[in-house]
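Technical note accompanying the year-one report. For the benefit of new consortium partners, we illustrate the data format agreed upon in the data management plan: each record pairs a sequence with a C-alpha cell string. No post-processing was applied to the example shown here.
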Amino acid sequence: METVAKGSVVSPCGNRAAAGFLGRRRGAVASARMSAVRIGRKSPFLGGRLAVGPRRSRPVPRNLLASPVQMNLAFAKAMKWWEKGLHPNMREVESAQDLVDSLTNAGDKLVVVDFFSPGCGGCRALHPKICQFAEQNPDVLFLQVNYEEHKSMCYSLHVHVLPFFRFYRGAQGRLCSFSCTNATIKKFKDALAKHKPDRCSLGPTMGLEEPELLALAANKDLQFTYTKKPELIPCGDAAAAQEYAIESPNLSSPTKPLVKQDSGERSLVSSGR
C-alpha cells in the first residue's frame, strides 16, 4: 500500500502530480484577484476600459509652420555722460567752422562755450550743474566742445586746462574765460549773473578774435579757411589820414576845382573891398 504524502494528488491514470499544485494554483488566482481589487481602488479609472489606438496628429496652423524669418536685433545705444540731461539750448560743436558760425549767428545772445573731455572726472561731476544752469537760463546758448575729438582746434584756441569755459556776446566778442570745478562753481555763477542781462551791442557780432581765427586757418588738421579783413581808416581821424599820406607820397592830395577857388577868392576880395 502506497503512502500518499500530505498535499499530493494521484491521477486516475496512476500518475502522481506535484505536491501542492492545486493549492498553488488556487493561491495564485486568489492573489491576482486581490491585486486587481487593490489596483482598481487606487486607479482613477475605477475599472473602466482604456482604449489604446494609433496616435492621430493634429493639423498645425499655417502661422506656426516653419518659414524663413528675418530677425533684426536692435540694441539701445547707451548714452554717454555728456549726452544726459541736455536741454534745447545745449548742443555739441562738430567742427571749427561750426563753432565760428554758431558764435556769429548768436547775435546779442550770451554764449557759453564748455570745453570738456570724456575722461575728465571734474568735467563729469560738473556736467549736471551746467545742465541745471542751462535749464534756468533758456535764453543763453551752451556749446560743448569735446577735447578728445577736437584736440587740434583746442590747441589753436590755447585751451590746456579742463574743464574750461568762455563767455561770448555780440560785438563785444569774448567777455571772460576761466576754469572751475564743483569746489569753485561760484566763478561760473558770478560770470553768468554778470553777463546775463540783455544788452544791445552796436556793430556786427565779433565771435572769436582775429588771432584765433588766423590760428585756426593756419592749422592744417582743420578744414577751416579765413581771410584777414582789410583795416579801414576812419574818415574823421586826421592823424591816421596823415600817416596814410606819408606812407603813400606818390598819391597827390585832392585839389578843389579852379572854378570854386576863383569864386572863393573873388568873394573874399569883394568882402575886403
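Partners are asked to follow this layout when depositing records. The first helix runs from residue 21 to 42.
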